[in-house]
Specification:
The complex is a heterodimer of chains A (about 250) and B (about 675). With about 250 residues, chain A is α+β, with helices and mostly antiparallel strands. Chain A has helices at about 30-45, 115-125, 145-155, 165, 175-185, 195-205, 220, 230-245, and strands spanning about 1-10, 20-25, 70, 70-75, 95-100, 110, 115. Chain A has a 5-stranded mixed beta sheet with strand order 2-1-5-3-4. A two-stranded antiparallel sheet of chain A has the order 6-7. Chain B has 3 domains: about 10-260 and about 430-490, FAD/NAD(P)-binding domain, CATH 3.50.50; about 265-425, Flavocytochrome C3, Chain A, domain 1 (Alpha-Beta Complex); about 515-640, Fumarate reductase/succinate dehydrogenase flavoprotein-like, C-terminal domain (Methane Monooxygenase Hydroxylase, Chain G, domain 1, Up-down Bundle), CATH 1.20.58.100. In chain B, the strands form 5 sheets. Chain B has a 5-stranded parallel beta sheet. The chains are: A alpha+beta (about 250), B alpha+beta (about 675).
């Protein structure tokens, strides 16, 4: 199959970017990133600069791959990262537009690569349970209800890719933050720090310049791990409770 | 060089306890003065960095990823072993120790492996406390399942994403220490050399991948937790950026590489489908709890399946060969990986492979779906349920257990594994070999430590499933915090390391020269094309089966390829910018040298053991045949020069507690 690609090219954060058109020979068995590999090999053969994109595990779990494909973060397949998208989705002769995740808090590094370290800083602000190595009681000392543990797991399945931010018209990071707050807050082990965690993570989210949530729920629709917006409801509840009851200034 | 494993004296079960009570330790006020560099943020690196910072050391942590959470530990699917015996099925520390030694085909150090089994239980406790959402029973307690090579149920898991959940736990612990300022985190920094002053590791040279800046970092000790080198084969289940560079730079500075030829070929991966393919995808070993491996018995059926004239469900039970159940009745489909992989190879070599290329076997869930369906129907009080109900109920159980794996399989292949068996084939997955370390996890260079897959220490010639996560976290959380003290206790009088030292200047210059050289070759071929050719050579001659003639041939091919690489490589872009092609070129250059060392090691080891199968050394039934008299040692190789043989150092393996036997799973 022959495809036309319109790809965002940008040398670095300081330079302005622009779309550039390419054609590539692909086949339907390839993954989307393998199709880009083929394009890059053809560019290198012509001694042109290959397209930079983040990627690593290529099995949908590391969260490195990003990019917006025809207007959708991670492309058209539901619950799928870019690296798991396969070319059988596309038709011969089709034009595909590829651009980076766009958000003020995710500055472009080069071409399709963006800087998502804001997410790390949000976790550093409180996305953990404070337990030093060696302090833990026996794993079975606190039973956790299966259903509750399952909900925590589903929130913990977040891969930190940032598609929720890219999908949101406000570039809000609420789905990401709420997934972490829910994961830890749903477990008995996470209770002690629950209030502080919520306040600190939300504070850092605001510091990083992410937008407000206006309940568009595009984040849930585009999330490759199908993280539910029910987590945002949990976050709002927890934040409200913590803000009202906290001894600290909010 | 005399290699001393430094395993403490005394009874096996007392060694670690005695060590912990008597090893040198560093007082809190001195810990604050000592700096430690940790390279890599996977399970071993992140857990080590967090734990050392908690103790009070000043830690600098490095990853080439954009975030420490991306390390490839995240992709581990099936689970983590521990000797908790929660299942009340007869498990114990000794049994985990014994299974690991036997699974490794008696090529690992007893003392290290016993310690691993001892701390395994602490890992589960620690992870639960961190909020790792392990699978649970209805009563709220932790659930376990079985993995290959064992007869107990000791594998803890979080659906098919155990590695992700454990890594997030370690990443969160690390993030907490970054927040306190005890860990300074450097993302997108790739280590390109280790700096040695007066015989001790004193720092590293890194390249900032965003702007190409070469930087120096000093510390009193350096820990490498940089993973394995499976990507030397180009196609593997490793992530695209996994590489050997950090470990190999250490080898070039005098560290020894142990058992480099011990490679784990994982039996259940999605088969190769085209020459554009960039990587292979694992289907977790946990699937062999419920999946049955088979190929047709009749060649007519094989032909019909390949041509699409018959579907797998059309083959009657009597005409299927469940070859693992037939050959290994006591372990069945849960034989260790090396055994399962070779059996698949044999079936395909006989011409019974079931896809167009003839390189695939079936992994079938139909009987498990039936079994679970009937049991669920009973639980729900359904009398005389119809077939469709049983299937639906059974599929629900399978989905609960392996949902994400089935989904992943369908996305890649377009086939629905609930309805038709998966097609699988072995692929490179893990490397048991790695930097030689002693009981302290210290390499032969004082102050240089290696953790996790980057070292060679615990898995012998074959790693058991769900033991990599266990080892990575054991090393990082529970071993290095003690053992690094035996080195750092001698460092308390030493000031901060001065990065203006000549050794830093020299190492920095070496790095710059090397990168410039790659950049300035000005040839015509891409890095990728060289890497593919190297990988193919490694797979063909140093893969699932090896023989003398092939290995000798491979060595020459690799040498020729390396020469061509340095004559005709083309790297686009510049040195001082974000340049993924340059990163790859630098890594492939190291793979070219490592590949040759692997071949040399495989040639030297004229026996079959675990993942290393020498065709000359097999029993009549095709099982691996060890030669304990000649080869009960660790091969630790020292770098000499590009055109010379590496130097072999032997560490004899002493077995005081386990009797060396022919490994049998029949």
């Amino acid at each position: 199959m022959k495809l036309n690609l319109k790809i965002w090219r940008q040398k670095n954060a300081a330079n302005k970017g622009a779309f550039k058109s390419y054609t590539v020979d692909a086949n339907t068995h390839m993954s989307f990133l393998e199709m880009l590999d083929v394009l890059n090999e053809s560019l290198i053969a012509k001694k042109e600069e290959p397209v930079a994109f983040d990627h690593d595990c290529r099995e949908g779990i590391c969260g490195a791959c990003s990019m917006v494909i025809d207007g959708q973060p991670h492309g058209p397949w539901k619950g799928t990262t870019t690296c798991q998208l396969h070319m059988r989705e596309f038709k011969d002769g089709e034009t595909i537009t590829i651009e980076p995740f766009r958000a003020r808090s995710f500055p472009v590094v080069k071409d399709l690569v963006v800087d998502r370290s804001a997410f790390d800083r949000i976790i550093q602000a409180g996305g953990y349970i404070s337990v030093n190595t060696g302090q833990a009681p026996d794993g079975n000392s606190t039973p956790v209800e299966k259903e509750q543990s399952s909900l925590a797991f589903e929130a913990a399945a977040c891969i930190g890719c940032g598609a929720c931010v890219a999908a949101c018209p406000n570039a809000s990071a609420m789905l990401f933050v709420s997934a972490k707050v829910s994961h830890l807050g749903l477990l008995p082990q996470g209770q002690v720090e629950h209030s502080d965690r919520v306040l600190n993570m939300v504070h850092q989210m605001d510091e990083e310049g992410f937008g407000r949530c206006s309940n568009v729920t595009a984040c849930e629709a585009e999330c490759p791990k199908e993280i539910s917006v029910a987590n945002i409801a949990r976050l709002n509840r927890a934040y409200f409770g913590a803000a009202l009851s906290s001894e600290k200034e909010v | 060089m005399k290699l001393d494993g430094k395993v403490p004296a005394g009874e096996l079960a007392e060694k670690w306890t005695t060590y912990k009570s008597t090893c040198p330790i560093v007082a809190p006020h001195n810990k604050r003065k000592l700096d430690v560099i940790v390279v890599g943020t996977g399970l071993a690196g992140a857990s080590a960095a967090a734990s050392l910072a908690e103790l009070g050391y000043n830690v600098k942590s490095f990853t080439f990823h954009d975030s420490p959470r991306r390390a490839h530990s995240i992709a581990a699917q099936g689970g983590i072993n521990a000797a908790k015996n929660y299942a009340n099925d007869g498990d114990s520390v000794y049994r985990l120790f014994y299974d690991t030694i036997k699974g490794g085909d008696y090529r690992a150090r007893e003392g290290n492996v016993h310690r691993l089994a001892e701390v395994s239980n602490d890992i589960i406790d620690q992870c639960v406390a961190q909020g790792v959402p392990f699978a649970r029973e209805y009563g709220g307690l932790l659930e376990t399942r079985s993995f290959g090579g064992v007869q107990v149920s000791r594998t803890f898991y979080a659906r098919g994403q155990t590695g992700q959940q454990l890594l997030i736990g370690a990443y969160q612990a690390l993030s907490r220490q970054i927040h306190t300022g005890k860990v300074e985190m450097f993302n997108r920094h790739e280590m390109l050399d280790v700096v040695i002053i007066d015989g001790k590791a004193r720092g590293i040279i890194t390249r900032n991948l965003l702007n190409g800046k070469i930087e120096r970092f000093g510390a009193h000790a350096v820990i490498l937790a940089t993973g394995g080198y499976g990507n030397v084969f180009y196609l593997s289940t490793n992530a695209m950026n996994c590489n050997v560079t950090a470990a190999w730079r250490a080898v070039k500075r005098g560290a020894l590489m142990a058992n480099p030829c011990y490679t784990q070929i994982h039996p259940t991966c999605i088969p190769v489908s085209g020459d554009y393919q960039s990587k292979l995808t694992l289907m977790s070993e946990s699937l062999r709890n419920d999946g049955r491996v088979w190929v047709p018995q009749k060649m007519d059926d094989v032909k019909a399946i390949r041509e699409g004239k018959k579907k797998p469900v059309d083959i009657p039970e009597a005409d299927r060969d469940y070859y693992l159940e037939r050959r290994y009745p006591s372990f069945g489909n849960l034989v260790p990986r090396d055994v399962a992989s070779r059996a698949a190879k044999i079936a395909c070599d006989e011409g019974r492979g079931v896809n167009a290329s003839g390189l695939a076997v079936f992994l079938d869930f139909a009987s498990a779906i039936q079994r679970y369906g009937i049991s669920q129907a009973h639980t729900h009080g359904l009398e005389n349920p119809d077939k469709a109900t049983i299937t639906r109920l059974g599929e629900e159980v399978i989905e609960e257990k392996y949902g994400n794996l089935f989904q992943m399989y369908e996305k890649i292949t377009g086939d629905n594994p609930y309805k038709t068996p998966m097609m699988i084939f072995p692929a490179v997955h893990y490397t048991m070999g790695g930097l030689w370390v002693d009981y302290n996890l210290e390499t032969n260079i004082p102050g240089l430590f290696a953790l996790g897959e980057a070292n060679f220490s615990d898995h012998g010639a074959n790693r058991l499933g769900a033991s990599a996560l266990m080892q990575g976290l054991a090393d990082g959380y529970f071993v290095i915090p003690y053992t690094i003290g035996s080195f750092l206790a001698g460092e308390i009088r030493n000031d901060k390391v001065d990065t203006n030292h000549d050794a830093f200047a020299q190492a920095e210059k070496d790095v710059q020269d090397r990168l410039s050289r790659l950049m300035n070759i000005g040839g015509n071929q891409s890095v990728e094309s060289f890497h593919r050719r190297l990988g193919l050579t490694m797979w063909d001659y140093c893969g699932m089966a090896r023989n003398e003639e092939g290995l000798i041939k491979a060595r020459q091919i690799i040498r020729d390829l390396r020469e061509e690489f340095y004559k005709d490589l083309y790297v686009p872009g510049t040195l001082d910018e974000f340049n993924p092609e340059l990163e790859k070129a630098n890594r492939v250059a190291d793979f070219m040298e490592l590949g040759e060392m692997m071949v040399v090691d495989a040639l030297q080891r004229r026996e079959s053991c675990g993942g290393h199968f020498r065709e000359e050394c097999q029993s009549e039934s095709g099982e691996a045949q060890r030669n304990d008299e000649e080869f009960t040692y660790v091969s630790a190789w020292g770098w000499t020069d590009t055109d010379r043989d590496p130097e072999l150092h032997k560490e004899e393996l002493v077995f005081e507690n386990v009797e060396l036997k022919t490994r049998s799973y029949a």
